[in-house]
């Protein structure tokens, strides 16, 4: 094997799909990474010995509302997107969808413009946009502003389809009450990742939306019709379908660990349950409160709530979510890491090398002890 600049040895390696033991993460002379058996390394290969632990790809987060003390809803600009991405990069997120929570048509268009500009300027980590609303159900609004929730129009649909022509990835959360099967089908055919959420729809209606092209569910269990004995709701429809992906806020607050275990046991292709942070301005910041559509959100005991106690996003990062999944829920480490890397990447229309360690990777995460704050491994060494 020629052209080896450095090899990291002594840790298990997760490539996003599977775990490799007795392998090295090799940095080539071109700066790209590869995974090689220890026995194939040249005797004179420069090595850096790691003290056990785990090497993994950078995380992929499809629901990021803010970070670094700022919210995307407050200002739709490249500067804000850069600050959000930088805050999440410190905890290992390599690719994210900045998420605009239910807002006005003007801010929706401004958000699309800002993401397009950020991608043109190569802002690291920004790979598209997630529009969570405004076409939701007031009955399951959560922290969304009821005054801004509305039914999707032909003009809205045109804006979304045009966004899909301009951006590599567009994710839109809708409620079937506010977006028809025909509109869902039109968005799906345009390459938009349609996700159901903030809905009070019955199970049959949700199945019809899935059949029309919705592929995903936004923060499973939260802000949706629940599983009941006579009406299974969106939770039941999601757990019945093996073809549907589902985001999950694994902070031990939004969803009880037992409910997560039940969902993973019940759902066909349960590997399609993936992790999101639903992070707000608090991510990577010490702030104790912030504004969401003019309403104050308070941070206390790892909870983010409005004045009335309604949960408003999560005070969470991906390493914390992985700790909850592995230590509290009991998910296998190999499965949990995939839920934060390759699984959400599967939903992206254009994903490049994100979510996996492959021939085009230039950096990886290193966790020395559990899922604490990671170091970055690259041609520069361990940073």
From TrEMBL:
* Protein's UniProt keywords contain Manganese: no
**Which keywords are on file for this protein?**
Carbohydrate metabolism, Hydrolase, Metal-binding
User: Where's the Amidohydrolase-related domain?
Assistant: 55-358
Which family is this sequence assigned to? Belongs to the metallo-dependent hydrolases superfamily. NagA family.
Q: Does the keyword Nucleotide-binding apply?
A: no
Report the cofactors.
Answer: a divalent metal cation
GO MF, one example: metal ion binding
Q: Which positions are annotated as binding substrate?
A: 143, 222-223, 230, 254, 311-313
Q: Do you know which InterPro entries this protein is assigned to? A: Amidohydro-rel, GlcNAc_6-P_deAcase, Metal-dep_hydrolase_composite, Metal_Hydrolase
Residues involved in Zn(2+) binding = 132, 198, 219
Which domain of life, per UniProt? Bacteria
PANTHER family, A to Z: N-ACETYLGLUCOSAMINE-6-PHOSPHATE DEACETYLASE
Gene Ontology BP term (one): N-acetylglucosamine catabolic process
Q: How is the cofactor bound?
A: Binds 1 divalent metal cation per subunit.
Catalytic site: 278 (proton donor/acceptor)
Q: What is this protein called?
A: N-acetylglucosamine 6-phosphate deacetylase
Q: Organism classification, top ranks?
A: Bacteria, Pseudomonadati, Pseudomonadota, Alphaproteobacteria, Rhodobacterales
- Which SUPFAM superfamilies does the record match to this protein? Composite domain of metallo-dependent hydrolases, Metallo-dependent hydrolases
Give one Pfam hit by family name: Amidohydro_1
């Amino acid at each position: 094997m020629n052209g080896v600049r450095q090899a990291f040895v002594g840790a298990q390696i997760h490539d996003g799909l599977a775990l490799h033991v007795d392998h090295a993460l090799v940095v080539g002379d071109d700066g790209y990474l590869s995974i090689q058996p220890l026995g194939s390394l040249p005797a004179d290969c420069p090595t850096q010995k790691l003290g056990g632990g785990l090497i993994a790809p950078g995380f992929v987060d499809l629901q990021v509302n803010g970070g670094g003390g700022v919210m995307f809803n407050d200002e739709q600009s490249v500067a804000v997107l850069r600050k959000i991405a930088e805050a999440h990069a410190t905890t290992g997120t390599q690719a994210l969808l900045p998420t605009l929570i239910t807002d006005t048509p003007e801010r929706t268009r401004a958000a699309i413009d800002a993401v397009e500009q950020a991608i043109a300027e190569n802002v690291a980590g920004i790979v598209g946009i997630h529009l969570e609303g405004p076409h939701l159900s007031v009955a399951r609004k959560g922290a969304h502003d009821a005054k801004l929730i509305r039914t999707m129009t032909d003009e809205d649909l045109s804006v979304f389809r045009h966004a899909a022509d301009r951006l590599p990835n567009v994710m839109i959360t809708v409620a079937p009450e506010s977006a028809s099967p025909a509109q869902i089908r039109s968005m799906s055919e345009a390459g938009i990742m349609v996700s159901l959420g903030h809905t009070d729809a019955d199970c049959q209606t949700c199945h019809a939306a899935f059949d029309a092209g919705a592929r995903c569910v936004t923060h499973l269990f939260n802000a949706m019709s629940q599983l009941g004995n006579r009406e299974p709701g969106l939770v039941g429809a999601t757990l019945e379908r093996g073809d549907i992906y589902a985001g999950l806020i694994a902070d031990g607050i939004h969803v009880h660990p037992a409910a997560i275990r039940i969902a993973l046991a019940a759902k066909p292709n349960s590997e399609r349950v993936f992790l999101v942070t639903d992070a707000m301005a608090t991510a990577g910041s010490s702030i104790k409160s912030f504004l969401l559509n003019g309403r104050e959100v308070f941070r206390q005991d790892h909870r983010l709530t409005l004045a009335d106690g309604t949960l408003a996003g999560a005070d969470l990062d991906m390493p914390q979510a992985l700790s909850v999944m592995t230590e509290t829920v009991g998910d296998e480490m190999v499965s949990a890491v995939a839920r934060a890397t390759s699984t959400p990447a599967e939903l992206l229309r254009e994903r490049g090398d994100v979510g996996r360690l492959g021939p085009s990777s230039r950096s990886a995460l290193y966790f020395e002890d559990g899922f604490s704050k990671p170091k970055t491994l690259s041609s520069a060494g361990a940073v």
